[in-house]
Amino acid sequence: MKKQKVNNQSRREIIKGVGALTALAASGWGFPAIAQNTPIKIGILAPRAGIAGTIGECGLRGAVFAADKINKSGGIGGRKVELVIEEETNAKDTTERYRKLVLQDKVDCVQGLVSSGVSLALGPTVEEMQTITIYWDGTTQDGVKETIPKPKYLFRSTDNECEAVMASLIAIKQYKGKFATIAGINPDYSYGRNNWAAFQALLKRFNIEHKVVAEQWPKVGTMELSGQIAALKAAKPDLIFSSLLFADLPVFMQNANAAGLGNGDVKFVLPAAGFQHTLMKKEFTPEGMVFGHNTMYFDLPNATPLQKEFVALYYDKYKDYPNWEADRAYFAMQVYKAGVEKALKANGGKWPNKDQIASAMEGVQVQSLGGPGMMRKDHIAEQTFYQGLTTHKNKYDFVTINPVDKKFSDQLQKPPGMDFWQWIETANITL
Predict the structure, then answer these.
(1) Cα–Cα distances in angstroms (integers) from residue 163 to residues 225, 283, 296, 339, 405, in the given order
(2) pLDDT band at 142 (very low <50, low <70, confident <90, very high)
(3) Domains of the chain and CATH, by start
């Protein structure tokens, strides 16, 4: 009960802070005239091709939407936003493009990144180049400890494992007593391995007796999964946990269904399925699966006017429905804007340097597409997460969720300075 009081207070404070920022902008508080004709350049690194192409494109669209809204309302400190877009591919090439953005394009800030492998590899370069950078995604627990333990210029999304924690809690609540054997099929890199480990740790924490009967570790982006599906079917698990999240996920579900794996009593837990939600067709995606939409659910009942506006514009322009990467991109843009304007005020109207902006970004509160959020002082975001059980009862040809479970990330991730695995063992986590 005490933990819930704290959580509610933190949410109220964030909403209050967002209101204060809005009031500040509306008051016409004067920004310095200097450099008003000079745009603020924001570099964007996002994949637009390959297995993560749809995710990167969605994030880019969210960034463009945010920049347009900012520019229509007067820019950041009176300066318009200009986006400089580069491709996220492998770690080596993406790092070179990052250096180009900083050294050649002279960007003020870099935002983006989807892949854990790329973002973690880039982390030391961010600190070396001393450029404010806000990751949309891609920072796992173990990787962060090794590559970016105490960042000064790097800011990141909520812990990657948040969706696994929430999915695990829902699965325990909904499926308790309905499974004894479990299997996992997860991408063979830090994200997949950490999520699978978190799921098992929470089963242990809540004294759920279980036996692991199969583990499958396909390489990231593997589209031929018949061997893994055959192995899972042979193991006859009661529950399958999968943190597949790229174009391989709908392929897996379609082939699993064709093989008879998905049309029986097997429970599925898919913490990151929302990345591919419009491709998760009813014909091969069963009802009653745990399905994660991360920080934005496009069909959220009682959505904010901001989300409704974005979803409507998105569908009108692209004939599709956005996933959560759009929210992560929008959030990053708003955090940077709030930090700059906070630093401007503290600096008496004189344009702040990057160290002043980075410091000001700590603790800022903003309104994002998925609801209110903030950037913690340890450079980790706090946002609202959405998950639920799949249903076919909707107007679409793909599954949605009902009911919608909503949790603020302070219930899903470690507090500042604490080890994630220790937190799972000791935290006052409720179902």
Answers:
(1) 24, 25, 12, 27, 12
(2) confident
(3) 2-159+303-382 (3.40.50.2300), 162-300+384-426 (3.40.50.2300)
